[in-house]
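Exercise 3.2. Students should predict the tertiary structure of the chain below and write it as structure tokens, then compare their answer with the key that follows.

Predict this chain's 3D structure.
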Amino acid sequence: MNEVRYLAFLLAMTAAAGDLRLFEAVEPHMGTLFRITLYAADEPRAAAAFSAAFDRVRELDAMLSDYKSDSELNRISRSAMGYPAKVSEDLFHVLAESQKLARETGGAFDVTLGPVIRLWREARKNNRLPDNAALEEAGGRCGYRKLRLDPANRTVTLDQPGMQLDVGGIAKGYAADAALAVLKQLGIRSALVAASGDLAFGDPPPGQRGWKIGVDSAVLELRNAAVSTSGDAEQRLEAGGKRYSHIIDPLTGMGLTRGITVTIVAPAGIMSDGIATAVSVLGADRGIEFVERKEGVAALIMIREGAVTDRVESSLWGRL
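Answer key:
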């Protein structure tokens, strides 16, 4: 889970807590593993809860994936060129939150970067930098202002041919939120949903103040909140003596070369996931300034320069 260590202390918590017992299940979705930990009265109730929550994640993957040609996201990328296209509530919500974040960060978060992101995927696969001319052409088909949303009619319009939406920087956080919501609807309130570096927490384990999460040298106790960590620990390209992150700067179309890892605590996964990506692009100074303006959001930023790592915290982080 990148820099976040999930410290559930499973051995210590396997004993029954009142009438509730600890259960855990894992399934692959959205190109990673979704791990759900919950407290339920018995195994049949836990199994039903796992099934419903994973079904919800699977449903969202079918909507939001840019890898699946028949996903709703990809269908809209093909059909909404110059014409408003009706979309599902889930997709509209994700796009609306993405556009809000894009405006707030001056475009540091941008779900229209699909053409550029695809070039960088091929670059990592082939272990060589994308062609400059191809990057420039792809960049010309990007720009969050070219994506228009109509809340009254729940429609999406793309202003330019060849655009491609990619919500990879926010979708897993939203899916973790959605899985947690399903569990709550079934009466499972003490639960945690982890999708790689994105974690969403419900009520704490019975008898505890919160779920224990290790971040750097600290242990946080969180409840009804979310944590996301963004960095290049898992996906990167090393070429020409530089290390290029999978996180793309929308302004330049280049993978980030600064060694930065961002951990965000926020009220919901859709917030923490998107903000972690945006702050990575903004950098430490501008990123902290942005976080300080967001109610209920805390940030820890680790910046690597050779063998030296600097640590920058938001004011709320110090109080967690």
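Discussion points: The first strand starts at residue 4 and ends at 6. The first helix runs from residue 10 to 13.
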